[in-house]
Structure formats: C-alpha cells, structure tokens
Design goal:
The structure is a homodimer.
Chain A lengths: L3 H13 L23 E6 L2 E13 L10 H10 L7 E11 L4 E4 L15 H7 L9 E3 L5 H4 L15 E5 H7 L2 H6 L2 H14 L7 E3 L4 E3 L2 E5 L8 E7 L2 E7 L5 H4 L13 H17 L3 E4 L7 E7 L2 E6 L7
Parallel strand pairs in A: 4-5, 5-6, 6-7, 11-12
Antiparallel strand pairs in A: 1-2, 2-3, 3-4, 8-9, 9-10, 10-11, 12-13, 13-14
Chain lengths: ~325, ~325
C-alpha cells in the first residue's frame, strides 16, 4: 500500500534518478470497470449450506412477454418497482446444497449454450464460490427447459458433472422423451425436444426418475408444480427445524408474476394450470412464512413472499444476512 | 477440468501404479464455506460509474434501537419483510464515483476501527473492485460519525488516501471541532468528539469545508439534511440526463425508518429535525423517481423509493441491472 511515507521515499528515489522525469501527483483514476463481483451467495437452512449461483440474465423486449395483458400494464408494474420500462431482465439462479456429506445441485443453468452474452457465466460463478464440477454428487432437475438442463453437458458431449447422478421428474421425462410427441410437435417446438435428448439422451439408462410428494434425498421432497411444463417440480428443502422451497419456474420473474399471479408468461405450456400452481404455492409460502428460492428472480433470488393486494410481494434476503 | 475422459485416463494410471491403492469415486464435498462474494456493485449515472462498496454490518439488539415505539412494533415490521425479529443488522455502504477524470469517494466506512468482526472489510471490497487507496482524488464526508470517517486514517495515524483532498460539511465541522462544546459534552459523547479529532485533526488546515445547496465537484451538489447530526448532508449526483441522490443517514436502515419515517433511531441527535429531513427528501425522491443510495440499507443499498401507505418502500436495484 502506498502511504504518504512511501510516496516520499519514491520521490526521493526520483531525485536520485533524474532520467525518470516528473512523476504525476498520483495515479490516474482507473478506467471504468463495468465488471461485477461473482454472483454467488450463501445462506443456511438448518445444517445445510445453500449457495445461490447466478448465470447472468437475458434482456427481453416487453412485446409478447406477458400473454394476457397490455404492455402498458407491464410497464406500470416495472415503473412502480423503480425499474426501466423498456425491457425485462430475466436472470437465472441455481442452487448448490452442501448437506455436509453430499453436494446437491438444483438445476444447471445455460452451460455452454448461452442464448446471450449476458449469460453463460455459471461455471465462473460456481468456481468463484469454491466448487469444482467433479464435487457434485447429485443433480436434481426441476424441468427440462434448456436454461435448466443445458449445463449438464458440454458442446463436445462430455458430461459436466462427471461424478453426479441425475434425478428428474418422471412426468417431465415421459413428456419430453416421447418420440411420437416430438414428431407431432410444431417445428418451433422441435428444438426443445432435441435439446432434451442432447442433454439427457446419453444418460437415459442412468437417470433416476422421481414422482411428486416424495423425499428423494435427505430433507429434499418433491412438490407437484405443473403448468409451466407438464412435469415441472418444486422442492421442499428441510434441515433441522428450518424449511425452504426451491420453487423454480412457478413464476418467471417474480417482479411481474408474483405481483400478478394471473398474468401468463409466454413460456407457460399450460397457462391455466400454471396459475393454479403459482397461487397454491405462493399462498402456502406466504401464509406459512417459508423462504422461497426462485429461478428467475433478481439475484440472489431468495426471500420471503407475502400476500400483498391481489398478488404477492417478494422481500429478497438481504445480502448481509449470510450463513 | 476433470471429465469422464480424463477420469478414465486417471483410472488407467492407477492400474499401472498399484501402490496408489483405491481412488475414491470422487472428491468429498468441500467444507461449508461460510464466505461470501466481495461486496461491491457497479451501476451508472449518466457517464459516471458508481461502485457501491460494502463494509459489512453490525448486528444490534432491538431494545432501545427505536426510541419512540415498542419493540413489538419493530418486530412486526421485520417479520413482514421476512427478516428475523430478534435483532437488526445495520450494514455500511460507501460510494466510489468514477467520473472518468476523477475518483471521488463518498464516506469511508469503519477502516481499522471496526466495532465488530462482521465489519472492517471495506478495504478488501475496495481492492476486490479494482481500486487502490492512492487512486482517490477526493473524499466527501456526509457527516462525522465514526462509521463514516474512520476509514480516513489508519491506527498508526497514516492517511489512507494519500492523494485525496477531503471535503466536509461546514456545519458539521463547526459543531464537532468546537472544543468548548466537547468539554461540555456528557462523558458518553466525548469519544465521538475525540474520534473526529483523530480522523480530521491532522488535516484541519487542508480540509475543504462546504455549505449546503452548492455544487462542490462536477455534478455533485450538497443538500441540507440535518437532524441526524447538525451538519448531516445528502448529495445529488448528476451526469448527462441522469440524477441520483446519496442520502447517507437520513434513515438508519430503510427497512425500519423508510417504512416508518416517524420512528426515531437512537443515533439521531435532533430526532424531530431528522424526521422533517427524512420526509422532505423521501417525498422528493419518491415523487420525482430519483434513485437513492442509502448508507445503511441492505447491500447494494441503492434503489427507488416509493410512497407506500404512511411510509416509503425501497425497491433495491436488482444486482443484475448493472452498469
């Protein structure tokens, strides 16, 4: 560290070495950095240490994003929360659960298949948090959309988590791995089916398929949450006397769809069922004061929901309220 | 990175080298880390790049924290926001403003005089953000409480920011540097006067003293905000078409005192005037949609205030909404 004392010493050195010429009074301000701290954040549930790992965000236009309301209403909801009303940012946040004996990953992010330059940073953040891919014992998937499963396998086909068993919702598997359904799907949807095969096909014989309302790992219980996709699953995570839920995509961003649970995001495959699921789970987490981790909320995407008017408010866990 | 392929190679190597014995299937889960990412966060105001730098937090008991309400009411406000109702965490967040030609620091954190093990991390975060103390051109102080000024000078007396000019509120200087007032102060308050002398005494002839409602650096204008202390000052930061305010301690934590502007935190020296100031500024930032950086909010402690019932809501800037 340069102090006045060392600066004086440096000045004396300059005097002794005239070729160096005039040293400016001090360093110029650094260039504007434009960089952020790595997106990881730890908190505890009982004896479990959870680490939220961000995979950046995608910025989307508002047109068409919410199916059943005017863009003007979407703008109003954004403005009320101090956000720009020209676009919506949709972040991605996975969980790593350290139970003390196992490292369990909940969803995987976009991996090497990032749809924009503002995402595809999951591995950097996972590594910055002190993890290595080979440490993963279990990967649990909430559903089979690409932003949740593409981290499983690299572009060259090699599995990212070489030592992990992969656990998937049975109803999700039955839907997406049905070749007849893929062949009958509209062209715009065929890519989604093919993506599932790319990520999961090579381990089709090894994946563990799970039903709803089952404890599939110590303290981790599956919860029916269909609508977003046919097999979309939420998870209760319990340790000691504490309980939280990973609610995955019961909302896209809670900024819009927790506030307005009847709004339909363009990605919900069965919008009516998605609304039923959304209200059922948010009613429960709000009334029972259960901490929720969302997949698409502002980082760290975990906090407390509360009933607020016709919708729900999400108070994010303060970043300092750590471990 | 270990892949299945390299794992197989490693297994082959084991076969060729029987002394190594059995390699476990994979690495054990890492110990629970308990560590967080460095607390810095960048955003833009026009051409200026702002970096919020955290200095951790202090955890305080609720008893006596709010002067004029029952602890039960404080608990209720915490619970409503999904927070523990057994204590309050008070974080510290300073600003670094890179104007492109100058590096301006707004307040300095606790420096080497951390009152708890959960604070005193400012220099780590400042360094992690890519800054060095000698880069600072200007340090602007909002007021003279220790958590704002103690970063100015190390325990050995050496100035932390060797090249920076220090700018202070004139009314604050007049109050705290008045020896007669110090001598007449109750013993419990003498330490505060002495702390001001420790931090600022050695540069008494060099500090630049400023009045309210003046532009004291390009785009930075002082705003009267007394009550918390006699010279407490807020700052408008303007660049291009954008404007924000550094409101410093017009609230202690906005979690309590923006929601309830008439609540009196134990640290407000003139509680009635502090309430007047708090309402005047929060009315303005809410009505005019001016982004506010607080000193004691949850990191990154910057966002949009909105009138909400009898108080104000703070929607923090999403961490992804970066630069």
């Amino acid at each position: 560290m340069i102090t006045r004392r060392t600066a004086l010493t440096a000045a004396a050195a300059v005097t002794a070495s005239p070729l160096l010429g005039v040293i400016p009074a001090h360093a110029a301000p650094p260039p504007k950095a434009g960089t952020q701290a790595p997106s990881f954040f730890r908190y505890k549930v009982g004896d479990y240490e959870i680490t939220a790992i961000g995979d950046g965000f995608v910025q989307r236009p508002l047109d068409g994003f919410v199916r059943n309301v005017d863009v003007a209403d979407v703008r109003k909801t954004l403005t009320a929360q101090g956000l720009p009303d020209t676009h919506i940012r949709v972040p991605y946040t996975t969980l790593v659960i350290n139970t003390g004996s196992k490292l369990i990953l909940m969803d995987t992010g976009n991996g090497e298949f990032a749809p924009a330059a503002t995402t595809g940073v999951w591995m950097n953040n996972f590594t910055a948090a002190g993890f290595k891919p080979e440490m993963g014992d279990t990967v649990i998937l909430s559903h089979f959309h690409g932003d949740h499963i593409n981290g499983l396998r690299k572009k060259d086909g090699v599995a990212t988590f070489a030592n992990a068993e992969v656990m998937v919702p049975d109803a999700e598997w039955n839907f997406w791995m049905d070749d007849a359904r893929m062949n009958a799907a509209p062209d715009a949807m065929k890519g989604a089916f093919q993506g599932v095969r790319r990520a999961l096909g090579p381990i089709a014989k090894d994946v563990k398929r799970f039903a709803w309302e089952k404890e599939i790992a110590p303290g981790i219980t599956t919860v029916r949450a269909d609508g977003h996709t046919p097999g979309h699953t939420a998870f209760v995570i319990a340790s000691g006397k504490e309980t939280m839920m990973f609610v995955a995509d019961i909302t896209n961003t809670p900024i819009l769809f927790a506030r307005h649970p009847e709004w339909q995001v363009m990605f919900d495959m069965d919008p009516a069922q998605a609304i039923t699921t959304r209200k059922r789970i948010l009613d429960m987490t709000s009334a029972d004061r259960i901490r929720c981790a969302f997949y698409h909320g502002p980082f760290p995407s975990v906090g407390q929901t509360s009933k607020d008017g016709a919708g729900y408010r999400l108070d994010l866990l303060p970043l300092q309220d750590a471990t």
